[in-house]
C-alpha cells in the first residue's frame, strides 16, 4: 500500500511540473474561502491561474481577470481545478473537455 502511495505522489508531482496554466472554476474573491486560498498558493508557486466564476465575471481576484466560463479563456489551459458542488462537476468536466 505504501509503495502505491509513493508512486501516486511521484505521478502527481510529474503532472504538476508540466502544468503551467490552471483554470480555477468556482474562484472566490472572499479570502476565507478555500478556492481563494488555493488560488493564492498556486500564484505564489508561479502558475498562471485563470479564475472562473459567472458571479465574478469581469472582476479581479488576486489581480487576475475573472472569466464567466471556461470557453471565455483565450489561452490553452493545462489543468482545471473545480471548487463547485459535486452535482455540478460533470457539466464542468464536459465543458473542460
Task: Describe this entry's structure for a reader.
- With 97 residues, this protein is of the alpha/beta class.
- The chain is 40% helix and 19% strand.
- The strands form 2 sheets. A 3-stranded parallel beta sheet has the order 2-1-5, with helices on both faces. A two-stranded antiparallel sheet has the order 3-4.
- Helix 2 (34-44) links the parallel strand 1 and strand 2 (48-52).
- The protein is globular.
Give the integer mean of the pLDDT values: 92
Strand content: 15-25%
Number of helices: 3
Rg of Cα set? 14 Å
How far apart are the termini?
32 Å
How can the largest sheet be summarized?
A: 3 strands, parallel
Uncertain segments are none
Placed side by side, the strands forming the largest sheet appear as 2-1-5
Written as H for each helix and E for each strand, in order along the chain, the element string is HEHEEEEH
Structural class: alpha/beta
General shape: globular
Helical content (DSSP H or I, runs of 4+):
40-55%
Number-wise, the strands total 5
Question: What is this structure's SSE topology?
Answer:
Blueprint: H1 2-18, E1 21-25, H2 34-44, E2 48-52, E3 60-61, E4 64-65, E5 79-82, H3 86-96
Parallel strand pairs: 1-2, 1-5
Antiparallel strand pairs: 3-4
Short characterization:
The protein is of the alpha/beta class. Helix content is 40%, strand content 19%. It is built from three helices and five strands.
Based on the model shown, name its key terms.
97 residues; alpha/beta; three-stranded parallel beta sheet; 3 helices; 5 strands
Amino acid at each position: 500500500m505504501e509503495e502505491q502511495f509513493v508512486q501516486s505522489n511521484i505521478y502527481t508531482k510529474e503532472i504538476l511540473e508540466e502544468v503551467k496554466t490552471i483554470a480555477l472554476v468556482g474562484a472566490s474573491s472572499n479570502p476565507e474561502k478555500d478556492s481563494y486560498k488555493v488560488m493564492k498558493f498556486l500564484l505564489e508557486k508561479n502558475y498562471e491561474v485563470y479564475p472562473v466564476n459567472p458571479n465574478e465575471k469581469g472582476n479581479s481576484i488576486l489581480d487576475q481577470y475573472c472569466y464567466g466560463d471556461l470557453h471565455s479563456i483565450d489561452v490553452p489551459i493545462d489543468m482545471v481545478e473545480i471548487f463547485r458542488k459535486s452535482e455540478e462537476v460533470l457539466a464542468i468536466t464536459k465543458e473542460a473537455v
